[in-house]
Amino acid sequence: MGLLNCGDTRNYLKDYGYGTIALPRASIKPLLMLTRNDGRLTPIGPLTSTFRPGVVPVPTPTRGISAPVSGSRSGGIDAKIGINILGTVIGALAGSALGIKAAYKDARKVEFEFGDVMEDQVAIADLDQFLGTASVAGNAGPFLKQLLDADEVYIIVATLDAKEISVAATKDNSAGLELDVPVVQQLAGGNIAVSGTGAKSSTIVYKSKDTSLAFGVKVVRLDFDQGRYTTMKIVKAKEAHVAAALHNADDDDGDPAVIVPDVPIDL
Questions:
Q1: Based on the structure, what is the number of domains in the chain?
Q2: Is 70 exceeded by the pLDDT of residue 65?
């Protein structure tokens, strides 16, 4: 796993055209629909629950290795927020995160890095053709129809996911926080493998045996006219965050940090 410290906690994937999912989760997939709630993207259901195919079938996502993204690093995140994220990630990978926060109680900063990254994506041209002949399902409720008419429905067209996350922690003096790897393994449980550079290490790799979490996303916004699809717009990577409502304590410019649920977007 190589390292690429992008130095930007807001969106360390923007150079790859992806927005960052601050709290990685397995349920985020291509063709998931989103809408804005107080300026934040919120999942509202799968594409196939709202649209009925016409002559063009629903596009099928393809899956492949995303070698360029493996090793992309988050940059330093305040430990008070970062450890909450870590606890959520470890809980999702291992089924439990009891004790993980306590292990990092002396951390000042943490950095996250995903390894062995995979990409799921649908071709935008295929999605465009599908929507061009599809119709809104008869059982779609008034709320969803209103969102469509207001051009407030987004669709995920690509995600990045990984089973492995590396966490580097530092103390107040910027020195590495040495953790007891066997103890951390015991805290994380048997469903996830824990490794470091030795019995004690400031960088620890957590790897799930079977669970892969999405952490990056590409999104398009649908345009409708009188209940019919007309076109779509690609959402810029810096605006495509699906997570974070708090600001990083180190941010001076007021930009949202991609580190907790529901990132504001500006479209």
A1: 1
A2: yes
H/E run at residue 143: helix 142-149
List phi, psi (to 5°) of 101. Answer: -60, -40
pLDDT in tens, 152-189: 999 999 999 988 888 888 988 778 889 899 988 888 87
Residue 88: what pLDDT? Answer: 74
Length, in residues, of the chain:
267
- List the one residue out of 110, 34, 39, 84 whose CA is nearest residue 263: 39
Residue 181 lies in a domain: yes
The verdict on residue 265 lying in a domain is no
Domain span at residue 80 reads: 4-239
Buried b (16+ CB within 10 A) or exposed e, 227-240: eebeebeebebbbb
- Residue 255 domain-assigned (yes or no): no
Q: What are phi and psi of 149, to 5 degrees?
A: -65, -30
The number of angstroms, rounded, from the C-alpha of 102 to the middle of its chain's C-alpha atoms is 25
Neighbouring C-beta atoms of residue 87, cutoff 10 Å: 17
Span between the terminal Cα atoms of the chain, in Å: 35
